Amino acid sequence: MGAPSSEFSVPSSLFPVPSSQFSPNVPYTFYTADVFTDTLFGGNQLGVLPDARGLTTEQMLAITREFNYSESTFVFPPENPKHTRRVRIFTPGGEIPFAGHPTVGTAHVLAAIGEVPLTGPETRIVLEENVGPVTVLIRARDGKPDFAQLSVAMLPQVSQPPVSRAQLAEMLSLDSADLLDGDYAPQTVSCGLPFLLVPLRDRKAVARSRLRLDPWEQSLRGTPSEMVMVFAADAERPGSDIRARMYSPSVAVAEDPATGSACACLAGYLAARTPRDGTLKWVVEQGFEMGRPSILEIEADKNAGKITAVRVGGRTVLVSKGELLGV
User: Fold this and answer.
1) Residue 5 belongs to a domain
2) Helix segments in 121-258, DSSP class H
3) Which among 227, 216, 253, 220 is positioned nearest to 94, based on CA atoms?
């Protein structure tokens, strides 16, 4: 789905909530949240403008760069009246079609501030993103959002990275022996946004990894493999399964503390290598090396050896509310 104009003139009859909630919002109200954490100042930071009507693409990018978070989201009325909202997602490097922590965090923020009414212990909404409609399940506790889980709009698609294992190890400041091989060789996977997934032997190797920009520029920049997630089946916290880090200099994010879109790809990668069917689940730790611990819960449904659904979820903490003046 291409990015539509950010100017909307939609009859109020199309809104799934009263049109008064979409009155022009000048100055623009924003919220910030920490996503994939239950602790303030953990997880991945997110800026959310619940009513971004009237903003141009250039203004949204400028606001994103002002926040300087890995992503910010801008919410509009839906194009399809059956859906809940239209969401545009920006990194400091530009607009992207899909991302996990912005989807989960935006759903939580809209529910927390009453823009999306909760219908009980579980509420399902649909957010229109450039990748397509993304369904989000919001679980509530005591009438407040407690957990949100997205279902990917695009099932995993795989390709091979354009670099050798030795080149990749050098690029990540690691030894070749730190990278797994065989069934667990590196692979590029996309659920709407592609990532090069690199399995490592343990979390010490994950901690040692550093993306070297010169070889990355020469080999991966501009390819579907330019965003790189390293991971190991060697978690730190009880109840976790995977330790991960994600590097994405191509979108002006040197390292991301929690990457739902990459973890969706990881769920597909792991499920494809799991011999049994059913609902497969893992808990991923990310952001620990950055001082922003994040916990992501990932799932994949597998039937007759085929992946039929992928989900990513976690908790969110609302941090602040403010106004953008003079936009």
Assistant:
1) no
2) 165-171, 203-208, 213-219
3) 253
Among the listed residues 66, 71, 95, 115, the single catalytic one is 71
Asked if residue 128 belongs to a domain, the reply is: yes
Measured distance CA(302)–CA(299) in Å, rounded: 10
In a domain, 1, yes or no: no
Instruction: Name the burial class of residue 261, with classes exposed (0-12), middle (13-18) and buried (19+) by CB atoms within 10 angstroms of its CB.
Output: buried
| C-alpha torsion sign, points 7, 58, 109, 313 | positive
Indicate whether 123 and 24 sit together in one domain.
yes
Residue range 179-221, pLDDT digits in tens: 999 999 999 999 999 999 999 999 999 999 999 999 999 999 9
**Cα dihedral across residues 248, 250, 254, 259: positive or negative:** negative
- Domain hosting residue 167, numbered range: 157-314
The pLDDT value given to residue 252: 87
Specify if 7 maps to a domain.
no
Which pLDDT belongs to residue 25? 54
Same domain, 87 and 199: no
Q: How many domains does the chain have?
A: 2
Nearest to 148 by CA among 117, 114, 98, 111: 111
* CA 55 vs CA 116, 172, 211, 320: distances in Å: 22, 39, 35, 21
Cα–Cα distance between 160 and 106 in angstroms, integer? 32
What is the distance of C-alpha 283 from the center of its chain? Answer: 15
Confidence label for 127 from pLDDT (cuts 50, 70 and 90): very high
67-94 tens-digit pLDDT? 999 999 999 999 999 999 999 999 999 9
Question: Is the CB of residue 152 less than 8 Å from the CB of residue 133?
Answer: no
Are 161 and 122 contained in the same domain?
A: no
| Whether residue 71 lies in the annotated active site | yes
Together in a domain, 93 and 179: no
Are 176 and 288 contained in the same domain?
yes
Q: Which two tokens stand for residue 190?
A: 């996309």
